[in-house]
Amino acid sequence: MSENGHGFTLSDEHKMIQKAARDFAEKEIKPIAAEFDESGDFPKDTINKMGELGFMGIEVPEKYGGAGMDSLAYVLALEEISKADASHGIIMSVNNSLYNYGLLKYGTEYQKETFLIPIASGEKIGAYSLTETVAGSDASGIRGSAVLKDDEYVLNGRKSWVSGGPVADYIVVFMMTDPDQKHRGISAFLIDANQPGIIRDKKEPKLGIRASATSELVFEDYRCPVANRLGEEGEGFKIGMTVLDAGRIGVASQALGIAGAAYEASVAYAKEREAFGKKIGQFQGIAFQLADMKTRLEASRLLVYQAAIAKERHKTTGERYTLEASMAKLFASETATFCANAAVQIHGAMGYSKELPIERYYRDAKITEIYEGTSEIQRLVISRLETGLR
Ligand code: COS
Fold first, then answer.
1. Tens of pLDDT along 109-161?
2. Which of 15, 48, 176, 268 has the largest count of CB atoms under 10 Å?
3. d(CA 56, CA 47)
């Protein structure tokens, strides 16, 4: 195995960002993760510092406030942040993948200058809002509406499960402009969440990733200038799905971080804890679990890196990387729950105790199989792309 421990040769620049993220995560995030998990408060100070370090706009060119790095740099940094705390991981992922990526790809020059620079530089927080209580996996079933009146759209509707909803400054929101057209009647809008007509409603009470604020958003005659529509009218579903391809690589990297944290804690415990006169790692029941965790972890890593490389290629060729993104998300998220579950078992009662972060890994891991497309949706996407059948 190479220097970074994963059989992959990384460039000096990649090693540098990986180390910067690891050092920051160890020093600044790890010590506060349990406290913010418990309170459910948004970790504003550490997120601000991540912005100053360039982590909130890794792939955004410097002229739009970002760090100007590539997709591999992004997943390397995100894994390290998520290893310390999955809540910080998803806050970073939403900003980079679900917000910046769509703006960079579909935004006008005016939109990039107004809505991208403050988010990519970490000065403000971005979010993405597609889901409604009546439309999760069936994303084209949204009912929120946008009606054009003169040079403004009037937005009405209730959005749910918005990551960053309670704190975001700017949000990409998807609304129906023409219900008769089904998915081709959806359009995307850039919203300033501090303007009138938007209510940050019920905060979602969650099992895990508790420090990443999530809420409902209610739109009541919110007025959005035509200049703030992202893409063409009716192009929203395609924009939403394209952006989710990037988002799924972010979630896969987050899952990789959780799985790695669970695995490393388990190895350390197996080498230290004794039972029946031996280290518990000497028993095959534990040793084989560690072997399975490590193998799945490294297989996930290869899928995540492959997806990041395909995403980078897309920037010049325009070739879709939906398959690579869905496979990475599917496998890495199931690896995260597998590893977190095994880690609890290996640690026994201590795995169940709040004195260690193991139970948090267990709670945090589960969402990676659900948000930004459940494992069932990923299997649907992968099989449809491979067989052409539907
Ligand atoms: N990239 C670009 N375009 C895409 C795309 C992608 N990844 N996926 C679908 N599209 C396009 C299709 O090409 C099609 O275009 P046309 O209108 O030109 O035909 C259009 O979108 C509709 O695609 P499709 O018929 O496959 O849509 P379905 O309604 O069958 O939905 C699934 C497809 C189920 C895969 C999609 O709705 C989905 O991913 N659902 C999960 C949503 C999700 O992740 N929710 C979580 C929200 S964020 S927490």
1. 999 999 999 999 999 999 999 999 999 999 999 999 999 999 999 999 999 99
2. 176
3. 8
Domain that holds residue 67: 12-125
Residue 4 lies in a domain: no
| CA 241–ligand 1 middle distance (angstroms) | 5
Residue 300 tokens, joined: 């996930």
Best probe residue, ligand 1, of 93, 241, 382 (max atoms within 8 Å of C-beta)? 241
Which residue, among 200, 183, 191, 169, has the nearest Cα to 240 in the 3D structure?
A: 183
Q: How is residue 181 annotated by DSSP? A: G
Residue tagged 């990733």 (tokens): 209
Q: What CATH number does the domain containing 151 carry?
A: 2.40.110.10
Ligand 1 centroid – CA 326 distance (Å): 12
Q: Are 378 and 248 in contact (CB under 8 A)?
A: yes
Of 234, 249, 284, the domain-final residue: 234
d(CA 294, CA 384): 30
Active-site residue list: 372
Q: In the structure, what pLDDT confidence band is assigned to residue 9 with cuts at 50, 70 and 90? A: confident
Question: What's the CA-to-centroid distance between 242 and ligand 1, angstroms?
Answer: 8
Q: Do the Cβ atoms of 218 and 209 come closer than 8 Å?
A: no
CA nearest neighbour of 18 among 63, 93, 83, 68: 83
Last residue of a domain, one of 102, 125, 148: 125
**131 and 112 share one domain:** no
Give the amino acid at 341.
N
Which residue carries 């309170």 as its tokens?
39
How far apart CA 333 and CA 70 sit, in angstroms, is 23
The domain that holds 254 is classified in CATH as 1.20.140.10
Q: Do residues 31 and 119 both lie within one domain?
A: yes
**128-137 per-position pLDDT tens digit:** 999 999 999 9
Nearest atom (ligand 1) to Cα of 371: 49
